[in-house]
């Protein structure tokens, strides 16, 4: 068995973790809203029509911020249709997903739902088919106290206090051919600049996210970031990144290497942001909002069939990927990658939260259940808050078909000084060999093992179902401690959470 050494010293801090890195996303898409978080006729529905079984699972994840209402949906979103008395709301064609949007769930309902699950809203404005004026009207409706047309309209709708939404996305994936109102780099640069300028006149306390490239393989990446930031750098606070991965070639070793692509993506966007900063002689630093990330490939054929051949349904089963064990490993690897860049990645949204490429699934007449990817995200959200530490490690490597030589072990350590806890997250993505991890913990005198959690399976394709969890974390006993050192076996193809805490003598 190969030995891997890791040194963990509390003095070598990368950055504090912004809790919004554990955010998620709800779009008006498929069964995310209707039949997901909102189902008034379900046995578990509360007085607002919200499924309490879903809310319980969302609360368990401790998601601090949730992006809404899109996604592609937002580029044809008429927010006025989604507010006010239900009897006055009219259905509208959703051109993004070729569905029928009933508008029985909207801004007000989402605000109540996020409050019930202890989260905050991350709101997106339509810069596809609409523009500056509508973004300003929506902000006025949400955040202005009273005495104006749209703030008084909110009060007329029964909401006296402002929603006070602090985080706003300036459109969505505006470089994509699939996007309604697609923009060139200069067009988006100008409209985002002027929209941001106007919105911050209304409420200077808000933070704004500029659209970055839709993914790292876009032909205009990273010139899109460089050009658009030339326009809006002085007015925005973050730039977005979106990335999904899949295993269409059924090559598991190379699939698990794709988190290295995510690493490269982040580093490239940081370098572009800093290039524009230098060019502008600015002291302001733009940080990153990785507000769409996940595995997405299982449901592509079904999605295309419904959109092309069965349009204008209400809440069809779109993007309902059923995740397996190797998907959970990659989600863990991606979460580690985000944490390692906590100095610049301040917001991240697992896309999405319920039913649509999601950790939580529902049955229309039954219960809600956890997919395999639920657990790495849960562990990171619960134990990944604090300070990310630099952790030198001499991992061995293995060869992959598309990524060449990649490291077997990928890990990050997070120190929470308030709770006096240290957590090591580690994935062994070698599919053939276990490794012995030796940790130097002498900087954490008096700390002892709390627990080690493992996500392991003999079957990379194992899935969870409504009837049982084939993939769930187990408590492991294979950690040895000795005078400031600890060692444990990281099994082949495994997600590991190793927690230490100060012992009260």
What does this structure look like?
By secondary structure, this protein is α/β, with parallel strands linked by helices. It has two domains: 2-11 and 388-502, Golgi alpha-mannosidase II (Immunoglobulin-like, Sandwich); 18-375, Alpha-Beta Barrel (TIM Barrel), CATH 3.20.20.80. Helices cover 26% and strands 26% of the residues. The chain is built from eleven helices and 25 strands. It has helices at 52-61, 107-116, 132-143, 149-156, 185-202, 223-232, 252-256, 259-279, 300-309, 325-340, 374-383; strands spanning 2-7, 13-16, 23-25, 65-68, 92-94, 99-101, 120-125, 167-170, 207-210, 238-245, 287-295, 345-350, 360-362, 368-370, 387-389, 397-400, 404-407, 409-416, 421-428, 435-440, 447-455, 474-476, 479-482, 485-490, 494-502. The strands form six sheets. It has an eight-stranded parallel barrel with strand order 3-4-7-8-9-10-11-12, surrounded by six helices. It has a seven-stranded antiparallel beta sheet with strand order 2-15-18-19-25-21-22, with helices on one face. Helix 1 links the parallel strand 3 and strand 4 (65-68). The longest helix has 21 residues, at 259-279. The model has no long low-confidence stretch (mean pLDDT 97).
Describe the largest sheet: 8 strands, parallel, barrel
Our count of helices gives 11
Query: Reading side by side through the largest sheet, how are the strands ordered?
Result: 3-4-7-8-9-10-11-12
Quaternary organization: single chain
| Principal-axis shape | globular
Helix content: 25-40%
- The structural domain count equals 2
CATH superfamily of the largest domain: Glycosidases
Look up the CATH topology of the largest domain.
TIM Barrel
